[in-house]
Amino acid sequence: MACIFINSIMSGYFAWHGNTFCDHPTVMYISGSISTGLWCAACMACMMLAMNRCCDLLKPDWMETLFSGWRTYFWLLAPTLYGSYFIIFTPPLIFTSIYDGAFFDPFVGTPVSDKEKYTSWPHTINNVIVILVLCTAYSCICIFVCIKSRPTMGGQRNTGMSMLQKQIIAQATLICMLILIAASVYVRMQFAETSNYMVIVGQITWQSSHGKLFFE
């Protein structure tokens, strides 16, 4: 909820009023630090969700061993600590109305912009890992679903998946796809010139990846 407030409500306010980092440096720095940490926490949670779905389909016994009972709380602690690291120890994403998106370079779009100086490698590594993990995990899930849906020798389809499993997979895929798109766009944004259209796509998918959970 906090991240939605920052990357939707506050960013909308800054965009409407044409604000940049120089207008509200303290507010943008603090809110940027929090939103960066929450984004990375969401990334880890999403990778755990992908692993959970893979275990549920491919190794149900692992699912019981890793995620049942009190172990769930242990898994929830990991994103909390991971996100806290990014809030405290890494540079924040700063929203700018010049591009209607968030960048590590607070002066992006100005003559003194220096993306190399303000690059956050921990954030980039986080996004690259998210892209690799989600692509791998959901490729495995897609292959499994295709195999299970393939007609058998008698012409009937396999019934190895329950309706609940299918619904959960569809839900998890949608949530993780939003994070995958946002991560991909933001990796590009930090290192190369990106069109305003793609910046807005990155911003919207970032917002949606957090907001989606409240509409399930």
UniProtKB/TrEMBL annotation:
The keyword ATP-binding does not apply. The chain crosses the membrane at residues 27-51, 72-95, 128-147, 168-187. Pfam families: 7TM_GPCR_Srt. Keywords: Membrane, Transmembrane, Transmembrane helix. This is 7TM GPCR serpentine receptor class x (Srx) domain-containing protein.
